[in-house]
Amino acid sequence: MSVRQALLALLEQGPMYGYQLRSEFEQRTGGTWPLNVGQVYTTLTRLERDGLVAGAGADDEGHVVYRLTEDGHGEVATWFTTPVARTQPPRDELAIKLALAVTVPGVDVGRVIQQQRTATMKALQDYTRLKRSERGAERVDLAWGLVLDSLVFAAEAEIRWLDHCESRLRRAAREQSAAPASAPVQEEAR
Amino acid sequence: MSAVLTLDRVSRVHGEGASAVEALKSVTFTAAAGELVAVMGPSGSGKSTLLTLAGGLDSPTSGTVTVEGADLGSLGLKDRARMRRTAIGYVFQDFNLIPALTAAENVALPLELDGQRPRAARAAARLALDEVGIGHLADRFPDDMSGGQAQRVAIARAVVGERRLILADEPTGALDTETGEDILQLLRARCDAGAAGVLVTHEARHAAWADRVVFLRDGVVVDESGSAPVDALLDAGQGR
Ligand SMILES: Nc1ncnc2c1ncn2[C@@H]1O[C@H](COP(=O)(O)OP(=O)(O)OP(=O)(O)O)[C@@H](O)[C@H]1O
Ligand SMILES: [Mg+2]
Fold first, then answer.
1. A61 and A119 assigned to the same domain
2. In this structure, are A104 and A27 located in the same domain?
3. How is chain B split into domains, by residue range?
4. pLDDT at A186 over 80
5. What domain range includes position A61?
6. Cα(B81)–Cα(B95) distance, integer angstroms
7. Are A145 and A102 part of one and the same domain?
8. CA dihedral B99, B104, B105, B110 (to 10 degrees)
9. How far A83 CA sits from the closest chain B CA (Å)?
10. Segment B146-202, tens digit of pLDDT
11. A131, A167, A168, A135: which is closest to A152 by C-alpha?
12. Ligand 1 mutation target, pool B11, B16, B19, B21, most atoms within 8 A of CB
């Protein structure tokens, strides 16, 4: 995730210092992707070097406050109007694990799937519980609610995919056991 | 927690001889007061079979089904029918609404059959329709509604009155994601208020509202997921 873009976007609200930026970010994302303050300050330094933010003096307690420059505003506008690239999928450990499980001998793939499904379902139950308490809260935080929904839909997609993998495997196993007589013929044909 | 529903080593064989299908194979299952249990599994795994047995709409080939302490198999026809009207709320996979009755009349029917005054029954029906978000459609006929609206009438009919056991077969199939969530919220609230609920669903997102999720495969319970500590959430969130 681009910390750089997120910080720039937050500064659209007005000048802020590092700690403030971090807490504004975490309020919206519920601490799902923790940011450390060091990372925030390093990023601000780079943004200043690139002319996207500028120091705007210090507040009463001496915190250095940053504001967007003209170029900074432009960068934020560009970010919001450009779709997130889908060309390079992030490395997915689970997909890789299953791809290997079906090819490496001696792995009980069904069990791998079942255990993963149970674990993902537990995570999904936890997200849902958070959502329920979110709904009960007096003021529902829309931003964090949407991030939570995104986690919910991703976990659901993973479970659907696991179900799909399981039924494909079962089908493959059925086809294999249904066609033992024709298998040698195919061998000869090759 | 006391068990409202218990299935003890229940099997159900459909048909006979070579064409016999063993839809459930010695399944043991409970739902306690205050608990919502989700049942998931591929098409044909026995989910609806389990639910119809729990609701007394079908009888097991072997094993016992107990609701609120009463063995459904040893109840007479009359007592069983009464139980179905008063203690058990059932949402059918295909809604099962009566086309000649309006939404409010459909919902009020089980109450009226149970001897409630028509006016009180209608008032309770309107309240239940409000709860599922279609109070304004109380006087419409099922055929003049969208699939999602008819589904909500079926849900209102299942939760109206003081049902102790709510059984729902794919109650969100025809609903969009937000309406589906409202329905889950409603089922959840009924269970939090003391009912036992069993929810059959293909959607993991909805199953996640349950306290327990039971996975069926070929008529057998293969897996169960209960509540997990919140730490598991953070691990899961950071792992990816
Ligand atoms: N009345 C019946 N006669 C014969 N077989 C039946 C009958 N009812 C169900 N079955 C069979 O029993 C098995 C389980 O059916 P069931 O309806 O319980 O599945 P399900 O899990 O609810 O599936 P779906 O997700 O498609 O609704 C299936 O193989 C089905 O064909
Ligand atoms: Mg079914």
1. no
2. no
3. 35-48+77-237
4. no
5. 3-81
6. 19
7. yes
8. 110
9. 21
10. 888 998 999 999 989 888 999 999 988 878 888 888 889 889 988 998 999 999 999
11. A131
12. B21
Q: Within this chain, do residues A59 and A115 fall inside the same structural domain, yes or no?
A: no
Burial class (CB in 10 A: 0-12, 13-18, 19+), A66: buried
Q: Is residue A186 part of a domain?
A: no
**B207 shares contact with chain A (CB less than 8 Å):** yes
What's the CATH number for B35-48+77-237?
Answer: 3.40.50.300
CB contact under 8 A, A124 and B222: no
Query: Which amino acid is residue B185, in one-letter code?
Result: Q
Nearest-CA neighbor of B122 among B139, B97, B134, B146? Answer: B139
Q: Is B171 exposed, middle or buried (0-12, 13-18, 19+ CB in 10 A)?
A: buried
Does residue A64 surpass a pLDDT of 80? yes
Residue B228 has pLDDT above 50, yes or no: no
Give pLDDT tens digits for B66-82.
999 999 999 888 888 88
Same domain, A49 and A107: no
pLDDT in the model for residue A140: 61
